[in-house]
Write a structure and sequence with these properties.
This protein is α/β, with parallel strands linked by helices and 510 residues long. Helix content is 37%, strand content 20%.
């Protein structure tokens, strides 16, 4: 069976010359004149390599390579970029660059060399892509929803784009329905229609998967032409970037400040809907969900009502939001996302990292959770019952992912579930409270059995005042040779806990 190479080049004469030179070397060739056709051919025939014009029409070469490298069926494909004469093109990150004026036989020999040196195709987990349904799959950081919709519109595709962002309790998902390339419906939670589409188009992080399947047009769906929708989404995005910092925050509380009888009798439909929705909403986020107009328009109207003194806005300060840059900085957050991508075993589009926690006694568990809640943005949900394994604390790393702490019973009668609970975890954390002797006795069996599991990463936290001396005693009792896996945090100095916990959680990151 001949090896197939895709030549995607808007210069038809050059493409034919390169194709002829490749065929003379026994290489099977398929050709495309623009990016949309090239994507369709690549997904259908899975070529071993692609020769692509850097300035390819519709979808340029770099973007096309990014899309194909996020798909499990084409992620191992080699790429050779062709630059046009006189064009200033930077070295692409996903392949090699060769001048467009090069001799066709030279280009063909370069392709042959690439194929001889070809590595085995990586698995989907290694490529860091979504698993599951066939089709176009990948990350929104590499290709936006607007670009995807434009692509499917050109190719008149029918199917569903499924999108997911975040993980755990903060996960959000949505879908966009296409018929013959036209957007006919969008949903995110309880919100549907154009409003939902504009919300999804604003996402910059997350994952997507497109599946071709029959779609029935719904009554009350989206009727506006697709290109008009994309233009309006871009206009809203530009306005949001320009004035977004002035708009009310979604978590803020909101209420009507004046008597309803004092309101004007004639109002714009949008203003009227906002005022009516205020009667049922206590927060801006609830108001946004209840109003049928796009979020940006609702927020602008609300901002005007606040300035006129008709609406009162109050921001809660009890629950602090995580810092804009996240708790651990962009580099460490990227490390965690890479670890999640490489080790992903589920079909979910995004999931938080799991941290398994064993506590020596209930008081140690409560104290540790209480200290964690001093970090910005941390959510705490006490365990419902004995023997239950469920997330009890969620620590945000950045706006996309977090670390969820699952508390596992340390009593020996639960030993059978320990390997299942620890499977796929970022690490296992043993929290020691009270005296060292008593805590070691309570946790020793779990320490030994979980520590013996393949790829186990175990850490210890001692809730104690005397840090270095106590950590040394704990390591001696447990036979630990590396005290870098043991930490002491003083419950008597809660103001110092956030710095110690940041250091602990940072060290947990792979």
């Amino acid at each position: 069976m001949a090896i197939t190479v895709l030549i995607a080049d808007g210069d038809a004469a050059r493409a034919r010359a390169v194709a002829m030179a490749c065929r003379s070397l026994g290489i099977d060739v398929r050709m495309a004149m623009h990016g949309a056709a090239a994507l369709e051919i690549a997904l259908a025939h899975k070529p071993a390599a692609m020769v692509v014009q850097a300035a390819l029409p519709l979808i340029d070469g770099t973007r096309l390579a990014q899309i194909l490298h996020t798909n499990p069926h084409t992620c191992g494909m080699r790429v050779l970029f062709i630059s046009d004469p006189g064009a200033e093109t930077a070295q692409p990150p996903l392949g090699h660059m060769i001048p467009g004026e090069a001799d066709p036989e030279t280009i063909a020999r370069f392709i042959e060399a690439l194929l001889r040196d070809k590595n085995p195709e990586p698995t989907p987990a290694e490529a860091g892509v979504l698993r599951g349904a066939p089709g176009v799959e990948g990350k929104l950081a590499q290709v936006s929803l607007g670009e995807l919709i434009e692509l499917f519109h050109v190719n008149r595709k029918t199917g569903v784009i499924e999108v997911r962002q975040g993980g755990g309790r903060r996960a959000a998902s949505g879908r966009i329905d296409l018929i013959d390339g036209d957007v006919v419906q969008a949903r995110i939670g309880s919100v549907a229609g154009e409003k939902a589409l504009y919300r999804l188009l604003a996402w910059r992080r997350g994952r997507f998967a497109f599946r071709e399947l029959p779609i029935a047009r719904e009554r009350g769906g989206i009727e506006r032409p697709t290109r008009a929708l994309l233009r309006e989404a871009q206009r809203q995005a530009d306005e949001w970037r320009r004035t977004g910092s002035e708009l009310p925050a979604p978590h803020a509380r909101v209420a009507l400040k004046v008597a309803r009888s004092s309101l004007p009798s004639v109002l714009h439909p949008l203003t009227q809907e906002v005022l009516l929705s205020l009667e049922l909403s206590s927060r801006v986020s609830e108001l946004l969900d209840r109003c049928s107009f796009p979020d940006y328009q609702v927020l602008r109207t609300l901002q005007t009502l606040i300035r006129r003194g008709m609406v009162e806005l109050r921001t809660d300060t009890a629950t602090p939001e995580p810092p804009a840059g996240g708790l651990f900085g962009a580099a460490l957050a990227a490390r965690l996302r890479d670890w999640l991508d490489q080790g992903r075993l589920r079909d979910t589009a995004a999931v938080d990292a799991k941290l398994v926690v064993f506590a020596s006694d209930p008081e140690a568990s409560r104290t540790f959770a209480s200290l964690l809640t001093r970090l910005p943005g941390v959510e705490h949900t006490p365990r419902a019952g004995a023997g239950e394994i469920a997330p009890v604390v969620r620590v945000p790393v950045d706006e996309e992912v977090a670390i969820e702490l699952f508390e596992v019973p340390a009593a020996p009668r639960y030993a059978a579930i320990w390997p299942v609970a620890a499977h796929g975890a970022l690490a296992t954390l043993f929290v020691h409270g009270g005296g060292i002797d008593a805590s070691v006795a309570a946790l020793r069996l779990a320490v030994e059995q979980v520590g013996a599991l393949p790829r186990a990463r175990c850490f210890h936290v001692l809730l104690d005042e005397k840090s270095k001396k106590s950590v040394g005693a704990l390591c001696e009792k447990l036979g630990l040779f590396d005290d870098r896996h043991a930490f002491a945090i003083s419950p008597e100095r809660p103001d110092q806990a956030p710095a110690a916990l940041r250091e602990l959680l940072t060290r947990l990151l792979p």
